[in-house]
Amino acid sequence: MKRYYLWGVLLALLAPFALVAGPAVSGEVERQATNYTAIAMFMVFVAGTLAITYWAAKRTRSAKDFYTAGGGITGFQNGLAIAGDYMSAASFLGISGLVFASGYDGLIYSIGFLVGWPVIMFLIAEQIRNLGKFTFADVSSYRFGQTQIRTMAAISSLVVVAFYLIAQMVGAGKLIQLLFGLDYWMAVVAVGALMMVYVIFGGMTATTWVQIIKAVLLLSGATFMAVAALSTFGFSPEEMFRQAVETHPKALDIMSPGSLVTDPVNAISLGLALMFGTAGLPHILMRFFTVPDAKEARKSVFYATGFIGYFYILTFIIGFAAIVLLSQHPEFFKPEALAADGSVIKDQLVKGIDGGTNMVAIRLAEAVGGNLFLGFISAVAFATILAVVAGLTLAGASAISHDLYASVIARGRSNETTEIRISKIATFSLGLLAIVLGIVFESQNVAFMVGLAFAIAASANFPVLVTSIFWGKMTTNGALAGGVIGLISAVALTILSKAVWGDVLGHVDADGKSVGLIALNNPAIISMPLAFFFIWIVSLFDNSEQAKRERHAFEAQRIRCETGIGAEGAVDH
Amino acid sequence: MQQDSVDAIKAHPRYQELVCSRKCFAWNLTVIMLVIYYGFILIIAFAPSLLGTPIADGAVTTIGMPVGVAIIVSAFVLTGIYVAKANSRFDALTKAIREDLQ
């Protein structure tokens, strides 16, 4: 009975989205004409994923089903789903836009996002599969004081999820406004409501399959675009680069590293956050519990690395090809970017593109595949956002229900039914919160949020996780000190940096340019070593009885970690 | 896990072999990845023009392009190497330990 009631509430939330087919409200400059092809394609995606959710809902009974799809996802499927979690709309549209605007710099950025994966594989993938059950806090609190470590891990997970979620929601609202001609609030409500349906009813099973479908659609769409674009250059990268250099206002500069990386300290700091942040993102780590054993966990990283690397090469080709191909389409540019004869003014190529450089991939889709393919890529971009927010929300909800509620508040005395109910309530609340924050932050500068999420993941989650797996002398107090200091220093240094102190809080220098109190753009180079240092020093001087017991428990932990003996199986017996 | 089985596994020669070889192998691969990536970052920071050199006289394509693609491919290949070794050697050792305990 209750289930039908919830369906009703959620369908009611979706209603404004269904009613959008009416005439577009005029008056907003940014808004595009309603794109019916894109909406139709997106509706097909929604119908398909809702059918999957219905199927998944019937299979989701235990907590294990809800959090980890019963542990029955294969390595290949999980690899696709991980790739899906990672290939967000921001990386598809953002990186192709970055390549379009600055050329080679886009490649530097995507390499940073990719190289975290091998490290995850070598150091933590199998280990967390063998030690954990539902959340990464299961691993970092394995032999430590449950209350303290789980509370800390849950808080830093929720902070990471919140910043990531806000950035995704605001990006979603703006993008969908642009692609579909929907109102901003409608787009945010539609994303939030659909995501709640997937997670509440279908749990991890539905979330995983939505992620897999979206990854396949995105990879095939991007492949088609890259191949179609390359064919216009006779499949010769040299020819594509040559024409791009002729077309781009920066000329030969687009072929070598430019302004993105200005000084070594900032370059290394960004590199640390990207590389180790991936290994501390709760929604990514959670995916390792969906496979039956360590063997499938390692396979999933192998496939995921392949898919993600391939995807970044595609976005690079798309960005470069767009430099040449979009310049032949004056209709994609603002009127002021056009010369008297109707061609695009060279200097206006980057600044003059209608809708900004985030629209580059979308415009290229139209240029190479016409209106139908434009609709397809727009629908895929929407689906991408939806799948990523579903994964994030599930990770946030499990931190609340599994770590905070079941382990800290109920101290392991809760039953499964209650835990699942709590996680569904948490999903619903997080979904509502995401919608509200998405609307509140509409005109705020949220550019720093994804960077901050990665920095916190690299400074608070990753050090505690990796040290708890590998260092036998670590204690609860050490973990607590390192985690808390990593979290606080990452947040504090971000507030003092240019992105928040200047761009958000409005501090400017004499020339009116925004400035930070510190010259560091990403905190990881300070906050991550700080976390490791405090874990080390506090553990070293911890001589309590509890610390002795924890050190003694390391051998048993390591045996389970190395051999998988005693690890959570694919099914409960 | 019971203390006696912890002691039994700990004393098992295959377990020692598993722990040692996996640890060395995993950290070596990690170091290789770190060297490749931070080497790349340091070149960008200190000698960006190196990556901007054309691959041949008169070509537009720069050395940075194949280097960038090679780093992406190396990440994939390194994970592949790990999987190959883990599937054969580490899994065999684990299996031997499990069988001996039964």
UniProtKB/TrEMBL annotation, chain A:
Gene Ontology cellular-component terms listed: plasma membrane
Cell compartments where the protein resides: Cell inner membrane
Classification via NCBIfam families: PRK09395.1, sss
GO molecular function: acetate transmembrane transporter activity; symporter activity
Presence of the UniProt keyword Transmembrane helix in the record: yes
Assigned protein family: Belongs to the sodium:solute symporter (SSF) (TC 2.A.21) family.
Gene3D superfamilies: Sodium/glucose cotransporter
One biological process term in Gene Ontology: sodium ion transport
Keyword Transmembrane helix found: yes
PANTHER family xref list: CATION_ACETATE SYMPORTER ACTP, SODIUM/PROLINE SYMPORTER-RELATED
Name by which UniProt lists this protein: Cation/acetate symporter ActP
Signal peptide boundaries: 1-21
From TrEMBL, chain B:
Keywords, sorted A to Z: Membrane, Transmembrane, Transmembrane helix
Entry annotated with the keyword Transmembrane helix: yes
Name used for this protein in its record: DUF485 domain-containing protein
GO cellular component: plasma membrane
TM spans (from-to): 24-51, 63-84
Protein species of origin: Allochromatium humboldtianum
Presence of keyword Metal-binding: no
